[in-house]
Amino acid sequence: MDETPVLSLSQVSKAFGAVRAVREVSLQLFPGEVHALAGENGAGKSTLVKILSGVHRPDSGRILLDGEPVEFGGPADAQRAGVAVIYQEPTLFPDLSVMENIFMGRQPRGRLGIDRRAMRASAAELFARLGVHLDPDQPARGLSIADQQLVEIAKALSLQARVLVMDEPTAALSGTEVARLFGVARTLRSQGCALLFISHRLEEIFELCRRVTTLRDGAHVASDLIADITPDDLVRRMVGRELDALFPKQETEAGEVALKVRRLTREGVFTDVSFEVRRGEIVALAGLVGAGRSEVARAVFGIDRWDAGSVEVDGKRLRPASPTAAMAAGLALVPEDRRQQGLVMDLSIERNIGLAGLSALHRGPLISRLAERERARDWAVRLRLKFGRLSDPVNVLSGGNQQKVVLGKWLARRPSVLIVDEPTRGIDVGTKAEVHRLLSELAGGGVAVLMISSELPEVLGMADRVLVMHEGRLVAEIPRADATEESVMAAATGRSAA
Amino acid sequence: MAVDLARMARRWEGLILVLLVGVTVWASLGVDGFANGSNVSFLLLDTTEIALMALTMTLVIVAAEIDLSVASTLGLSCAVLGRLWNAGLPIEAIMPICLLVGAACGAFNGLLVTRLGLPSLAVTIGTFALFRGLAYVMLGDQAVAGLPPAYTSLATASVGPIPLATILVAVLAVVAAVVLHATGLGRSIFALGSNVEAAFFAGVRVKRIKLWLFVASGTMASLASLVYTFRYASARADSGMGLELAVVAAVLLGGVSIFGGRGTLPGVLMAVLLLGAVRNALILADVANEVLNFVTGLLLVASVLAPNLGAVWRRRSSPQVEGKSVT
């Protein structure tokens, strides 16, 4: 490979106050190649992306475009230089059509203002280049996240982007959507684009990328050819130590039925869902995105109402549509969307942890600050939370640590049934293993755990039983011994209704 | 970023305190008649209604809602009082009825907001007109006088230079501050004001709390109407016209975020006093009424602008952009 990189970073550093987010990192992006950026949360990946996209200016070091030093004064400079970034959750204008989003501010003009026909044709051509089918006239509202990303990619292409940075694009995608995105990435690669791909899923890195650069604590650890290393090597580079088993499943005796869901139906969302979770069990709820798993969890916990059926916790029937009643019965839900549903981002760690158990913090009519702090400190220590002060707002924490705060908030209530929805989405490998160990310990301690997960290794590694949903129905129940990727996927895609 | 905001919130209250002390010192030295006991007493008395309504307004705005109908509720409550007094009811029976009317007004707002999911800004602009209109329907433009002297003199009585009404404000302020800053309800109000979805997922009874905040706001407005009526010894339908702006101004100037989730009661109380002192000093200095409104408006705009200017300035100095889009 004696080509010149399209874009390279040379010894780039960036600090925010006392925090050295990126330290002397070098990175070379070659045309026609997918390069992975790996590292735990807080390793500096996002800062590096922001340097590449012109949002941050490096304190020292150089950015080279085609071997020539350049300076990005802002995102517009980076865009002119051909660098485009696709984020995990794109921000389109929801009320404009797909093509208007692509050509925002650069609409082709005809005699009578905007030439919609030319715009439609160009958009269609871009999608053809990407090998995907999207209607240019469709409004952006209602597009799946995967489709929104494609719109962003089409927009990048229309700007003649030569470097495409994809910042955790697959985190919220289903298996088929990931496959389609990878198809697009390969197409772009063959057209000479340089891609930088960020993902927490190692198997994706190994499937798609040719090189990988690993960061740890802001520093450059290694740049390898994927062919030369194993996933274990990569994890070691990211974590800097030997990782405990990623799926530390303990064998436990299943006890009494703690959660009993009978013929639960919410019209148009899920139908006739029945299952039980026993104390000491971890039951996974698998299925494709949109199969209705989170919706079942929301209904069970009382966030949404249900139209028919019943939910019992420890033999007591729950009042529908009341989270408070569910909590009083011993249910806890760690929701899917940590930032929006799990945490009040502006509030402090201690207030977030206290929020789900305010009555326990009262001494007489008043809240005891001491009790509030003790409860937070207790769980922060148990969950090995990395934090500055308990009075810091949770939005300064990394994703994995935020998830620990959500877990602490619910575990402090000592629930008898814990529902976790995508408990390790978007968190780093080290914290993932910790969360898995925690779930396993909780089950060992007699908690009934219902785990919704889109990551098959997690489902297979952690669950005593796997329930599979497909299009709003529970289609399979697979015991641990029989659960394989094939059997779960077959049920999830509706190919077998065993 | 949010650390900065929290620290700034604290500094903001410090700033209001400095301004309050500054204005007091300046007015004491430079404005004839400001620093004597009867003027201080009048100043305090004159801010009673605003202070009372600002207490509940603080809770409402921290919960990311707003109640623009408070002054109209006050007017309606005054009109009810006048009408019933004309009808010959004893004042002791009328007062609880007024409080119930205020509570009902608040409940009406609260139900529209929580049951129908309407934005409180729109709902309370509507009831702002509705309640005031109702007040005129009940009492027309007559002024009901001849209220019992026992109550009218009580409303203006003082202990030393401190009016009794101010003691009422102080007691309720302590209650409101304790509720907001030291109870589970207060924690819940901050949480739902900051992120209503996350609060709901944590078992906070969002709708119930919001409903009761509106009820409290309406009840407080009618309590203020009693003070107002007895203080002026006259019940009129146009009582307290425009006070809602003074109340909202004080709350925002006191450092409560218009977006909810942030603010403190001591800050609001200082802002009430600051606005009252500025107004009082300017009146004593013979400044025209138009200028008074201009100054109040200026302080309000400054209070909304200042925290944001700070943020803009910080963004300039260190380019830590929050937004995700690169375009």
UniProtKB/TrEMBL annotation, chain A:
<dbReference type="InterPro" id="IPR003439">
    <property type="entry name" value="ABC_transporter-like_ATP-bd"/>
</dbReference>
<keyword id="KW-0472">Membrane</keyword>
<keyword id="KW-0677">Repeat</keyword>
<dbReference type="InterPro" id="IPR003593">
    <property type="entry name" value="AAA+_ATPase"/>
</dbReference>
<dbReference type="GO" id="GO:0005524">
    <property type="term" value="F:ATP binding"/>
</dbReference>
<dbReference type="InterPro" id="IPR027417">
    <property type="entry name" value="P-loop_NTPase"/>
</dbReference>
<keyword id="KW-0813">Transport</keyword>
<protein>
    <submittedName>
        <fullName>ATP-binding cassette domain-containing protein</fullName>
    </submittedName>
</protein>
<keyword id="KW-1278">Translocase</keyword>
<keyword id="KW-0067">ATP-binding</keyword>
<keyword id="KW-1003">Cell membrane</keyword>
<dbReference type="Pfam" id="PF00005">
    <property type="entry name" value="ABC_tran"/>
</dbReference>
<keyword id="KW-0762">Sugar transport</keyword>
<dbReference type="GO" id="GO:0005886">
    <property type="term" value="C:plasma membrane"/>
</dbReference>
<dbReference type="InterPro" id="IPR050107">
    <property type="entry name" value="ABC_carbohydrate_import_ATPase"/>
</dbReference>
<keyword id="KW-0547">Nucleotide-binding</keyword>
<dbReference type="InterPro" id="IPR017871">
    <property type="entry name" value="ABC_transporter-like_CS"/>
</dbReference>
<dbReference type="GO" id="GO:0016887">
    <property type="term" value="F:ATP hydrolysis activity"/>
</dbReference>
TrEMBL record, chain B:
<feature type="transmembrane region" description="Helical">
    <location>
        <begin position="151"/>
        <end position="179"/>
    </location>
</feature>
<protein>
    <recommendedName>
        <fullName>Autoinducer 2 import system permease protein LsrD</fullName>
    </recommendedName>
</protein>
<dbReference type="GO" id="GO:0005886">
    <property type="term" value="C:plasma membrane"/>
</dbReference>
<keyword id="KW-0813">Transport</keyword>
<dbReference type="GO" id="GO:0022857">
    <property type="term" value="F:transmembrane transporter activity"/>
</dbReference>
<feature type="transmembrane region" description="Helical">
    <location>
        <begin position="12"/>
        <end position="31"/>
    </location>
</feature>
<keyword id="KW-1003">Cell membrane</keyword>
<keyword id="KW-1133">Transmembrane helix</keyword>
<keyword id="KW-0472">Membrane</keyword>
<dbReference type="Pfam" id="PF02653">
    <property type="entry name" value="BPD_transp_2"/>
</dbReference>
<keyword id="KW-0997">Cell inner membrane</keyword>
<feature type="transmembrane region" description="Helical">
    <location>
        <begin position="51"/>
        <end position="81"/>
    </location>
</feature>
<feature type="transmembrane region" description="Helical">
    <location>
        <begin position="118"/>
        <end position="139"/>
    </location>
</feature>
<feature type="transmembrane region" description="Helical">
    <location>
        <begin position="93"/>
        <end position="112"/>
    </location>
</feature>
<feature type="transmembrane region" description="Helical">
    <location>
        <begin position="211"/>
        <end position="230"/>
    </location>
</feature>
<dbReference type="InterPro" id="IPR001851">
    <property type="entry name" value="ABC_transp_permease"/>
</dbReference>
<feature type="transmembrane region" description="Helical">
    <location>
        <begin position="291"/>
        <end position="313"/>
    </location>
</feature>
<keyword id="KW-0812">Transmembrane</keyword>
<feature type="transmembrane region" description="Helical">
    <location>
        <begin position="242"/>
        <end position="260"/>
    </location>
</feature>
